[in-house]
Design brief:
alpha+beta; 128 residues; 60s Ribosomal Protein L30, Chain: A; globular; 2 helices; 6-stranded mixed β-sheet
Length: 128
């Protein structure tokens, strides 16, 4: 089973030596997305809600580039520089996802690239 590199111009380009996503069979591994505007490659201005929505929009774009959508995410990992934002991120996640929800972890971290407040990575199953 070969690897297919996934790239879409609708999500930020990689800011390091990695792919936006890698597909192996019907599984797609999405690299971490921070709240970068895909057109300017700048961090979006705004609060945790604005940053979180941009991250979900970026994840959706990569999912769609692989032939899926957010509903195909089976595992989501959220990294937050301030865990007091946990409840707000949950509220915003409920705008993007419906049951059955993916498996998920939320991790507090000291810092993220470009001083982002949130980063997310995901695993997608395209098997239906």
């Amino acid at each position: 089973m070969g690897r297919e590199i996934i790239h879409t111009d609708n999500a930020p380009s990689a800011i390091g030596p990695y792919a936006q996503a890698v597909r192996v069979g019907e599984t797609v591994y999405l690299s971490g997305q921070i709240p970068l505007d895909p057109l300017t490659m700048e961090l979006v201005a705004g609060d945790i809600a604005t940053q979180t929505r941009r991250v979900f929009d970026n994840l959706r774009a990569v999912c769609q580039g692989a032939g899926g959508d957010l509903a195909d995410i089976v595992k989501l990992t959220i990294y937050l520089t301030d865990l007091s934002h946990f409840a707000r991120v949950n509220e915003i996640m409920s705008e993007y996802f419906r049951e059955p929800y993916p498996a998920r972890a939320a991790v507090g971290v000291a810092a993220l690239p470009r001083a982002a407040a949130v980063e997310m990575e995901a695993i997608v199953s395209l098997s239906g």
